[in-house]
Amino acid sequence: MKFSENWLRHHVPIEASRDELSATLTAIGLEVEDVTALGDSLDGVIVARIVNAQKHPEADRLQVCEVDTGKGLVQIVCGAPNARAGLVAPLATVGATLPGGIAIKAARLRGVESSGMLCSARELGIDADASGLFELPADAPVGAPLADYLGLPDASIEIKLTPNRADCFSVRGIAFDVAAALGGEVRALDAVAVPAGSASAMEVALEAGPRVPRFTGRVIEGIDAHAATPVWMAERLRRSGLRPISFLVDVTQYVMLELGQPMHAFDKDKLEGGIVVRPARAGESLKLLDGRSVELDADFLVVADSQGGGGARAVALGGIMGGADTRVTDVTRNVFLEAAHWIPSAIIGRSRRLGMHTDAGHRFERGVDPSLPPIAIEYATRLILDVAGGVAGPLLDVTLPGHLPEPQPIVLRRARLQRVLGLKVADAEVTRIFTALGMRVESLAEGWQVTAPSRRFDIEREEDLIEEVARIFGYEHIPTATPAGALTLAAEPEARLGELAVREQLAARGYFEAVNLSFVPAELLARWGFDRDLVPLANPLSADLAVMRPSLLPGLIEALRHNRARQQDRVRLFELARVFAAGDPPVETPSLAIAACGSARAEQWGEPGRPFDFFDLKGELDALVAWGGEPQRWSIHADGLPGWLHPGRGARVARDGATVGYLGALHPQLARALDLGPDVHVLELALEPLLARRLPRATAVARFPAVRRDIAVDLPEAVAWSQIEQVVRATLGGLLRELRLFDRYSGKGVEAGRKSLAMGLILQDASRTLTDDDADRCVRDAVSALEKSCKARLRG
């Protein structure tokens, strides 16, 4: 928000200097980003008129001008392209010193005497325009000091507003905060009702429901469209960052900056019938004031007239921009002024969808005072009648009862205020602060009952009132105290691994931790086949951040792809974070994901290179599972795979029979869609099952030796090792201390569709030494169980 310092002081007279005002604005939460001084050191600069302009005899680009100073004529040599007879412009007289230190002296330019300098806006330090002389209105008082005529010196102040302070998108909104902080009082607004001079009016119908609960308008006839914008208004607009265009347009901009209510002026003669405020129709198009045509849908709201039928033609894009077909021009004689209340949810995001940004949309997205439309219309009407003449019709104020927000009283407890701030603020000071901010205050035994003005959408509860007292009273007055309290050091449960231990384990194994956003593009999830139980964002920052991630892998693979695109062939990444699934509220699940590609070992000479494969990834899982001390509770299965895994090189991971994740190579189709090679392997697990571990227990070293027996069995290819291990462990019970798979063979001597697995049985009894008969019986039992359950055959 940019505004003129003098304009602000007009609404709230204060004695504070410019530096004090800037410091105060920042201290109360309206951070000053820039202060540009305007028109300092203009002593000796006056309003002058060029009486005659002749070409310089010795220079093609110079003119010799006779200039009326109000006290006589002086000769000025000028090179400005717009210098001409009759032009009124600023003149720096001899002896003046302009901003920047330019001293004005009498001089000879190419042999011609020059007694002063006609100035551009940039040379005067009041604008950046240096294209020519600063043109003043023809009726400007010749000979008057320029600073007096333009209301200088001044400053253009730009502040950065937080989204909750929509009320400060106006000079008067800022004035109330300044009055409260610096002890001033905001002047009453001269917006008395303008009596109707004609019966001319337009019918208004609200068909958008609670999204537009108020629409105010008025017809003004017989306007002089060529009326010039008054200098004081044009200068206030210019110093607020807006270029004056034409009086009717400038009035609506001026009222928006001063009061905070966006407005629009229609050429009434280009409107047909009544006004209808309605949702846009699918495929409906509208040509806007900036010349572009936009296609709309039912999410947008429009102002329409009756051309072609009731509400058939859209003439403005509600809350954002007017239409080109009904805009005011230099031949407009009759206007229809409009000011409406569009609720924020009806406007938020609409401008961004169209790739545009407007001052009106920016304000309506954050919230505009619902009581302002009739005030703004009356205020603008008076300005128009005073400058451009005309006759005003009756004020039309159409509302939907029950849908206009009404401020509710809030009780602020004195004890609560003191406890939160840590100091006692005098009752009189609290009352003064709320009153200066435009709030209604009633004293209660326990504190105050405060009703915020309708422009303060951010005041909803007691804590908001406490914040108002704190920021106006001054954060510097709140005592600084070191928090005190007893801290208890909680012991880490031994039955659970810490997340840090997992991170350290993976880092030690050569993996780098990635941290990705929790939001992902919907298009990316569609590629992976994630189309169920998604959690979309109601108001995403962009289309690429529209859905909460249901899996860590899409983001992690994008990070891997980013690294590979930068000549990193061997990539190892992991991420510990939460994933989200639909629910009320959404379900958050801590997860671990791993992505790896490239060679299995870093480049070296000790062994031949080979690519990272499924069994390398399973080894990483085994290393993590081993930390829990119960690897027998984990199993790997080839069924139930998601669509993003390679069907022949993927597996489902289970703990105690329940699925907790998946691992394997990416599906070739997905790898091609993501522009990846065929060697990318991934793992994703629910984190909590991985962190759970058996409680450590010390046991005596076995007194009796272990016995090993090796067996080789021939069994179907489809039988997984996890099934074999489960059968053997269940059969041998406590005698089996360890089961080791040390060979796998298929080929000559083994039937097609079958494989041979060789395993070692480590047998041990805690109470005695096992005999050969005991070991042989265990082998027979294991083989028999495998024959029944796995269709296995003992190989000789």
From TrEMBL:
Any GO CC annotation of this UniProt entry: phenylalanine-tRNA ligase complex
Residue ranges constituting the TRNA-binding domain according to the UniProt record: 39-147
Residues that coordinate or bind Mg(2+): 458, 464, 467-468
Matches recorded under PROSITE patterns: B5, FDX_ACB, TRBD
Keyword Protein biosynthesis in annotation: yes
Segments forming domain B5: 405-480
Record's subcellular location: Cytoplasm
Cofactor: Mg(2+)
Principal location listed in the UniProt entry: cytoplasm
Keywords assigned: Aminoacyl-tRNA synthetase, ATP-binding, Cytoplasm, Ligase, Magnesium, Metal-binding, Nucleotide-binding, Protein biosynthesis, RNA-binding, tRNA-binding
Annotated signal peptide: none
Keyword Aminoacyl-tRNA synthetase in annotation: yes
Cofactor note: Binds 2 magnesium ions per tetramer.
Domain FDX-ACB stretches: 702-795
SUPFAM superfamilies xref list: Anticodon-binding domain of PheRS, Class II aaRS and biotin synthetases, Nucleic acid-binding proteins, PheT/TilS domain, Putative DNA-binding domain
Family the entry assigns: Belongs to the phenylalanyl-tRNA synthetase beta subunit family. Type 1 subfamily.
Assembly behavior: Tetramer of two alpha and two beta subunits.
PANTHER family: PHENYLALANINE--TRNA LIGASE BETA SUBUNIT (PTHR10947:SF0), PHENYLALANYL-TRNA SYNTHETASE BETA CHAIN AND LEUCINE-RICH REPEAT-CONTAINING PROTEIN 47 (PTHR10947)
Name of the protein in question: Phenylalanine--tRNA ligase beta subunit
Natural source organism: Dyella thiooxydans
